[in-house]
Design brief:
There is one protein chain. With 331 residues, the chain is an alpha/beta fold. It is 28% helix and 12% strand. It is built from 3 helices and 11 strands; from the N terminus they run αβββββββαββββα. The chain has an 11-stranded mixed β-sheet with strand order 1-2-3-4-5-6-7-8-9-10-11. Interacts with MYH7 (via C-terminus). Component of the sarcomeric M-band which plays a role in myocyte response to biomechanical stress. May regulate expression of other M-band proteins via an SRF-dependent pathway. Important for normal contractile function in heart. Pfam families: LRR_1, LRR_14, LRR_4.
């Protein structure tokens, strides 16, 4: 029995030795694979960085990273070596995300990442206090972070054709220098409060959304000179729109308007309006002016049509009143 115990002990000892050796070998193999992976990653980073450096140009005194129609689904951390860049122009690259380290590019003035597949704007975007233009149209963004309001120098913001953006954080009203905002082809059902409270806004595109009405507070946008609202579901216009004294261009084509309100006659600075493709109740026709090219004729037609429609609606209203009064008197 003692011999059997000794034999079993010897076997267990040998087994433990072999298990230890196998474990050590497995750990060595794992470390070797990790080391090889790190080497590959370092090599890929160096190759990517070399490619990126080749895309850096200087135009009008600015240092610009310009990439067009090349696959760059992600951007390597080695890009930080180029933190003096003032512009990024990356189009049709298949970029999936804006890198988290974007906030370290403190010299950025223009960030144009349109026509990619970006689904999120990182909160670090708010660290770009010198950024003047942010162009993220034709992506897959659904929400906008409130940290964007910290981009105090922002003058131009384009988020068109992201399809699913339906609101903006109210903090964006702090963008005191923003003059140009494109939110077309998204999912807005009303004009966001942040937009109504942007003090410097001059140009706004909310075309191809789901707007059913315009808020009375639209008059807050006193600096607005151009408003695009085509392809929505707007059925009526608030009287306060007539208080937008600086509005020069108003596009309302392809909506559900049945009438043009009389108070729009008070908008003396309007230079171009478009009421085409609305189910307006009155049919107003008049011959085109002679000696005008197509573009000018179309522009004049829009404004002339508005005035003619309002005059005709007033005459129709007067005729109906007279008819009603006669019937009452006869009765």
């Amino acid at each position: 029995m003692t011999e059997n115990m000794v034999c079993a002990g010897a076997v267990n000892a040998v087994k433990e030795v072999w298990e230890e050796r196998i474990k050590k070998h497995s750990e060595d193999v794992k470390r070797e694979k990790e080391f090889q992976h790190k080497l590959v990653k370092i090599w890929e980073e160096r190759v990517s960085f070399t490619r990126l450096k080749e895309k850096v140009t200087r135009e009008e005194g600015r240092v610009i990273l310009k990439i067009e129609k090349e696959e760059w689904k992600t951007l390597p951390s080695s890009l930080l070596k180029l933190n003096q860049l003032q512009e990024w122009q990356l189009h049709r690259t298949g970029l999936l995300k804006i890198p988290e380290f974007i906030g370290r590019f403190q010299h950025l003035i223009v960030l144009d990442l349109s026509r990619n597949t970006i689904s999120e704007i990182p909160r670090g975007i708010g660290l770009l206090t010198r950024l003047q233009e942010l162009i993220l149209s034709y992506n897959k963004i659904k929400t906008v972070p409130k940290e964007l309001s910290n981009c105090a120098s922002l003058e131009k913001l384009e988020l068109a054709v992201n399809r699913d953006i339906c609101d903006l954080p109210p903090e964006l009203s702090k963008l005191l220098k923003l003059t140009h905002l494109d939110l077309s082809m998204n999912h807005f059902s009303t004009i966001p409060l942040a937009v109504l409270n942007m003090p410097a806004l001059e140009w706004l595109d909310l075309g191809s959304n789901r707007l059913e009405h315009l808020p009375d507070a639209i008059e807050r946008m006193q600096n607005l000179h151009t408003l695009w609202l085509q392809r929505n579901e707007i059925a009526c216009l608030p009287e306060t729109i007539s208080n937008m004294k600086n509005l020069e261009t108003l596009v309302l084509s392809n909506n559900k308007l049945q009438n043009i309100p009389v108070y729009m006659e008070e908008m003396k600075n309007l230079r171009f309006v478009n009421f085409r493709d609305n189910p307006l109740k009155l049919e107003v026709t008049f011959p085109p002016r002679e000696g005008t090219d197509g573009e000018e004729e179309q522009e004049l037609f829009g404004l002339q049509f508005m005035h003619t429609y309002i005059q005709e609606s007033q005459r129709t209203g007067m005729r109906l009143n007279i008819f009603w009064m006669r019937n009452v008197h006869t009765t």
